[in-house]
Amino acid sequence: MPLPSASALRTLIQSDRNLDSAKLATRILLGRLRVEVRNNPALIDAKVAELIEFARTNAYAADDLATI
Fold first, then answer.
1. CA distances from 45 to 6, 38, 41 (A)
2. Which of the four pLDDT bands, split at 50, 70 and 90, describes residue 2?
3. CB neighbours of 50 closer than 8 A, spacing ≥ 6?
4. Which of 26, 25, 24, 23 is nearest to 9 (CA)?
5. Is this structure's pTM higher than 0.85?
6. Alpha-carbon gap, residue 2 to 34, rounded angstroms
7. Domain layout of the chain by residue ranges
């Protein structure tokens, strides 16, 4: 599946959307990114870039992100 847009990933990081359908590695990463962004909202662009890189490296993560 194609990777969601950067704006969709930004919304996902800033949301409390349930991640139960995602693989464990994706849930752990998203959980960490959410905490980091809550503690410092100025990091959002860097965390979106980190999530995009993770999804490019791990095909299952792109699938997870498309279905969350």
1. 9, 13, 9
2. confident
3. 33
4. 26
5. yes
6. 22
7. 6-67
- The structure tokens listed for 24 are 């464990």
Q: pLDDT tens, 12-60?
A: 999 999 999 999 999 999 999 999 999 999 999 999 999 999 999 999 9
Question: How many of the other CB atoms lie within 10 Å of CB of 41?
Answer: 10
Residue 19 phi/psi, 5° resolution? Answer: -110, 10
Q: Are 31 and 23 in contact (CB under 8 A)?
A: no
What token pair was written down for 6? 């950067």
Helix and strand element counts for the chain (H, E): 4, 0
Joined together, the tokens standing for residue 68 give 């969350």
